């Protein structure tokens, strides 16, 4: 974790006297904007639910369907979390602790699947064999898409761990597995649990992949309710259950993230790790790892390429893909991505400034409510926004502005983590010098803090950009009339099984996503980037 | 994190700046797009079909068309929610119940009599609030390697019997399934329909849409599936006739399973371009547009304009023997959606 340079003990710096306990009102007002819009859809759902009478609520909740959805959703969450934990931890341990051939390559390759959204992977799997529908297919797709969420923190944690303990365990007669289970695993717990909860959260809010794989969860059901005609109460109740499930995961994750921070304090001086020799297992393990990368990355990319080449041959969709359509969809995705990234970073900035410069109880509350966005599924935000804009703020109905605000809610947490880290890093003493030379907080921020934090803010914007370009659910429901993005077109084609037609759009999306990610990774280091 | 780990801070800033600039430029460009006043089409029809007709319309009139697509019931309910402030000029959908709903809510303007005259009156609203454009036949797709034609049931209602468990596929959330439920309710009553749906809930493999159902039958994942013949014909074009492992079974004359769905269009009362909207409807039923669709190998629907031949891959329209249900008695989809929810299918 970035640490602010501590002032020298006993020396009172000039800036310290100028530091106020209360933040400037303007900054505070700007910082409230982010959390406020995050709370908006949640409030709308609660209002909607409050309108349902208790008897009606019981009737709606006591349907066999709700039980079926709970079993499906929770079953898949548990299975996917466990399998992602297994795959992610094994991958991290192999990369960080053994003499696996090609470790450096695998270290990156195990992180990259995050750049391919699950609805693209499910398209790839489904177009190989439609038999992959249902629970098993959903598990395969979700695991191959999300295991990096476990891999990255666990790998980072392994790297930060003092190898002396493992070595001691081994010298005391523990084998590789014994030292792993008794010494390494307990230390990995915060990273592992944090990663697992992130997987759970992502599985809960995933929509596109499950819809394509014909696996019914709360998100696909909400969409089904929506497409067969609005049914306010039933929808709101299902949304509330989903929201509660998400919030449970989110709060658990926030707690563990807090713990992880403490766990890292005082890591001490580390020695380089002695890599464990895999011996005869070296080749089979290597083959398994290759298989994993092929499944998570090779398959989606390969299938897109395959369908690209099929285009123009017999098995094409009835309507030819026009270059014009592709350019238009790319342009829409890119400009929405830029606009959304700009708004999100602008909302995150005052929050980050508050959190790093004026910590306090109120500020913590504001920051926490911004993180809430991570636990609100895109489909819930979209449905709430449709209701709000139709009923209350009609001029915003079906405008790009509404969609961009929805993006900001979804990705504010992502931006906030980067923005906060970047602001933390900006040398505090330079600010204090600025203050002592007579600049107000606004000018200090503009002329000193922002230029210092620039790269971090750029990273935040780029991360949000990638997330928006690959976002499906909110885009699908909120896009203004006549707007067609890459995600929307891929959805329209894949959900009607027109795989070849989807290929150019999917290729463009994956290219955009991989390119931005590569750019970021080159600048900021792959693991650090993904950890955020 | 320390400063030394950040080798070069300038590119990051440039990235951020260019992101902001591009966002502003993008917003500006998006605003510019309102030069010629476009017609706004809310569509519950297939994107490919809509692309063909809007292309023809713009070519003939020079009026651009903005399309908002979705499932018919979804779009219809959206227009209801939007009310008089709906930006829609025209609604073009796959199934008549969506139009009936809007007519009931008083949201539609009368269609030009000249447009209505192009189509046999039984396919349009009696009060002239919407016009029928195309039709699709409801059928059963079956895989001969899994089931003999002679074993297929005499009625759609038989699939609620336990012996069909695991042998039938349906797409209950597809906009084509709702009219079928409405038809059963109109013929057999609400209670019998609910029993039938509960039987289906037990027996049927559920798919997202008809495309999924027909693909599943074709590859042998399930023996039979309820679809519109449209999807079977389209799959044939996509995978090639040599890969069609499935066949179509037409329900016996008069059975509810042989329902013919009417796709139609209407002009919104709140339209700000009523004249252009009426021109669009006139184009939809005009022989050139209907012939284009019938010959397109994209849209396997029966053209309803008189004298236009359907795609030969379809069973001739004159040979269809659908159940005796008028578009009026089929009504809107609200009862159907309610029954599907009660049966746990939605």
Write the SSE topology.
The complex is a heterodimer of chains A (532) and B (346).
Chain A: H1 14-18, H2 25-50, H3 54-61, H4 64-97, H5 103-109, H6 118-128, H7 134-160, H8 163-171, H9 176-205, H10 208-212, H11 218-227, H12 232-264, H13 282-310, H14 323-357, H15 361-371, H16 378-391, H17 400-425, H18 428-436, H19 441-469, H20 473-478, H21 486-494, H22 499-524, H23 526-531
Helix pairs in contact in A: 2-12, 2-14, 2-15, 2-16, 2-17, 4-5, 4-7, 4-9, 6-7, 6-13, 7-9, 8-9, 9-12, 11-12, 13-22, 14-15, 14-17, 14-19, 16-17, 17-19, 18-19, 19-22, 21-22
Chain B: H1 10-32, E1 39-43, H2 47-61, E2 65-69, H3 72-82, E3 90-93, H4 96-104, E4 108-109, H5 113-116, E5 131-142, E6 168-170, H6 177-188, H7 190-203, E7 204-206, H8 210-218, E8 224-228, H9 229-239, E9 247-249, E10 260-268, H10 274-285, H11 287-295, E11 302-303, H12 327-330, H13 334-342
- Using only C-alpha atoms, the radius of gyration of chain A works out to 24 Å
Q: Low-confidence spans of chain B: pLDDT under 50, at least 5 residues? A: 1-17, 23-35
CATH arch. level architecture of the largest domain in chain B: 3-Layer(aba) Sandwich
Domain module tally of chain B: 2
Head-to-tail CA distance between termini of chain B: 51 Å
Largest interface: A-B, 68 and 71 residues
* CATH topology descriptor of the largest domain in chain A: MetI-like fold
The count of helical stretches of chain A stands at 23
Q: What is the CATH first-level class name of the largest domain in chain A?
A: Mainly Alpha
Description of the molecule:
The complex is a heterodimer of chains A (532) and B (346). Helix content of chain A is 76%, strand content 0%. Chain A has helices spanning 14-18, 25-50, 54-61, 64-97, 103-109, 118-128, 134-160, 163-171, 176-205, 208-212, 218-227, 232-264, 282-310, 323-357, 361-371, 378-391, 400-425, 428-436, 441-469, 473-478, 486-494, 499-524, 526-531. The radius of gyration of chain A is 24 Å and the shape is globular. Chain A is an all-alpha fold. In chain A, helix 19 (441-469) runs antiparallel to helix 22 (499-524). The termini of chain A are close together. Chain A has two domains: 63-263 and 282-310, Orthogonal Bundle (MetI-like fold), CATH 1.10.3720.10; 313-532, MetI-like fold, CATH 1.10.3720.10. By secondary structure, chain B is α/β, with parallel strands linked by helices. Chain B has two domains: 39-134 and 262-315, D-Maltodextrin-Binding Protein, domain 2 (3-Layer(aba) Sandwich); 136-259 and 335-342, Periplasmic binding protein-like II (D-Maltodextrin-Binding Protein, domain 2), CATH 3.40.190. In chain B, 41% of the residues lie in helices and 15% in strands. Chain B has helices spanning 10-32, 47-61, 72-82, 96-104, 113-116, 177-188, 190-203, 210-218, 229-239, 274-285, 287-295, 327-330, 334-342, and strands at 39-43, 65-69, 90-93, 108-109, 131-142, 168-170, 204-206, 224-228, 247-249, 260-268, 302-303. In chain B, strands 1, 2, 3, 4, 5, 6, 7, 8, 9, 10 and 11 form an eleven-stranded mixed sheet that branches. At the A-B interface, helix 4, helix 11, helix 14, helix 17 and helix 19 of A face helix 1, helix 2, strand 2, helix 3 and helix 8 of B.
